[in-house]
Amino acid sequence: MSYMMLIVEPVEQRGQRTLAEGRAAYDSMLGYAEKLKARGVLKSAESLLAQDRAVRVQKRAGEKRLVDGPFAEAKEMIGGFFLLDVKTRDEAVAIAADCPAAEWCTIEVRELGPCFA
User: Fold this and answer.
1) C-beta of residue 10 within 8 angstroms of C-beta of residue 75
2) pLDDT per residue as tens digits for the range 15-41
3) pTM, to two decimals
4) Which of 37, 63, 100, 116 has the most CB atoms less than 10 A away?
């Protein structure tokens, strides 16, 4: 079964770290990803740049609308993800609990499936 771990972090968090603190956090996540890869449960993992580099796309009544970041109404952002291939939800949750980012973020675990279910 496929589960996605979404790394949900406060929008301002990255800007409050020193470069050394940011690098240490990133390196801990790289090491974590390598361990998951070695266990054979990691399909993919990526970090996402901050929201000020994002754009939102909408199409209403046939008209396209683009909204560039930052998005002032947001208190949290998705900072990255891990796509897992595990047997159970409990296994995905256990993996999330071991994630270094759980110390400074919220890890949301979601099973992949059709959006109509």
Assistant:
1) yes
2) 899 999 999 999 999 999 999 999 999
3) 0.87
4) 100
